[in-house]
Amino acid sequence: MLKRLFFIAIVAASLFYGVMIGKYRVFPYEQIKSFQDLSEKETINPLQDIVYSKNDLEELISAKTNTIDSLRNVLTNEIFGSEILPTSVPDTIFNTKDEYFTSIENLLEIEQFEIEQSYGVESIGYIFHPSTSNNRLIIYHQGHSGGFNLGKSTIQYFLEKGFTIYALAMPLKGKNNQPVIEVKKLGKIHVENHEELKYLKKPLQFFIAPVITMLNYAENFNFQDISMIGLSGGGWTTTLTAAMDTRINYSFPVAGTYPMFIRYQKPSKNYGDFEQTNVDLYQKVNYLDMYIMGATGKNRYQFQILNRYDSCCFEGDDYKKYVDFISEKVSEFDNGKFLFYSDTSHKEHKISDVALEQINEALHDGSRN
Fold it and tell me: Do 111 and 129 meet the contact criterion of CB atoms below 8 Å apart?
C-alpha cells in the first residue's frame, strides 16, 4: 500500500513539475528548449534574399510604349471575356437617407445605386452629392473589412471639399448580397466569401464590373476629372480598373498590392486572396504592368500609398524594389506619372489623415498632372 501511494505521489509530483516547466519556464526549461531548437531544422524561404536587378524587372514586364493598348485588351478580355468593356449602367438609382452619414458637412443628398450581375450577384453603393460642388468625381472603394461605411472619414474629407463621391464595396461585402447559386455537377453553393467566387465564370468580373458600370453612368455628367481611391482590396480593385479603363484620370491605391515576386519572398504576410494571385491573369498582365498602365495617358497618374508599419500586409520597405523602376518606365511614355508615398504615421491597415492630405495635395497640384 505504501509503495502504491509512493508511486502515485511521484507521478503527481512529476506532472506538477512538468506543468511548472511548461507554464512558468522553471529549470530546466531553457536547457530543454535549447535542445529542441537544435534538433529542429529552421525553415528559411530561399527567395527572401534574391535581388531583382533592373534587367530582371525588364524581363517581367510587357507594358511598353508599343504594346500598352494591346495589353489593355488582354487584361479586359481576361476579366470580362471580351476586349470591349461592359456598357451597362446601374439597374436602379433612388434617393435614400442614412443617419450614419447625415452629420457630414456639404452633403446635399444621397442616392443609392443597385447593380445586378450574373448569378444574382449584386453591388449596392451610394452616390454622395455635395451642396457646393467642384465638378470633380471620386470613386471610393472599400476593401475586405466590410462595407463602404468603414470609409466614412475618406468620404467625408473629400465631400466637404466639393467632390461627388461614388462609394462601393467588394462583392459579398457590406450592403452587397451573398447569393445561393447552382453549380453544374456540384449543386447549390452559398457564396459567402471571395474564394467561392471561383466557381463562377470569369470570377474577377464581379470585382471590376460595378466600377465600370459607375464610370459609364458618370458619362452622363460633365465632370472635370475622375479619380479613384481604394483601401486594401479596394486598392487592388483601383489598380486593376485604372489599368484597363483610361477614364480614371488619377488613381490612389492604398495598402492594396505588391508585385508577385515580392509576395513570394514573404508569402505569410503578403501573398493575398485568390483574386490577388490568379495565375491565369498575372502571367499575362502582372502588377508591374498594371502600375504602368494605370499611370500612363493624357491627364493621368497613379499615386500608390503603402503603410510602412501596416499591421496587415504590404508593409516594410520592399517598395524600393520596384518604385523607381516603374517611375522610370512611365517616363518613357508621352504622358503620365507614377508616384509613391510610404506612410510612416501609424501602424494600422487604413487610409490615415496623413495619406488623405497627400492625396488632396496631389489632386490640387497641377504639376503632378
Answer: yes
- CA–CA distance, 39 with 257 (Å, rounded to integer): 38
Is residue 158 located within the same domain as residue 28? no
- pLDDT tens string 247-280: 999 999 999 999 999 999 988 888 888 899 998 9
Same domain, 29 and 106: no
At 5, which amino acid appears?
L
> In terms of domains, do 153 and 20 share one?
no
Evaluate whether 324 touches 288 at the Cβ level (below 8 Å): no
Nearest to 302 by CA among 231, 358, 249, 356: 249
Asked if 116 and 11 sit in the same domain, the reply is no
Exposure string of 273-299, with b = 16+ CB inside 10 Å and e = fewer, is eebbeeeebbeebbbbbbbbbbbbbee
Answering whether pTM is above 0.70, one says yes
Do 193 and 71 share a domain, yes or no? yes
Nearest alpha carbon to residue 194 among 78, 114, 278 = 278
The parts of the chain modelled with pLDDT lower than 50 are 21-26, 29-31, 33-40, 367-369
Q: What is the CATH number of the domain that holds 163?
A: 3.40.50.1820
- 19 lies in which domain range? 2-39
181-214 tens-digit pLDDT = 999 899 999 999 999 998 999 999 999 999 999 9
On whether both 86 and 233 belong to a single domain, the answer is yes
Residue at 350: amino acid letter? K
Q: How far apart are CA 133 and CA 129, in angstroms?
A: 8
Alpha carbons 219 and 246: distance in angstroms, whole number: 13
Q: Which amino acid is at 317?
A: D
**Does 44 fall in a domain?**
no
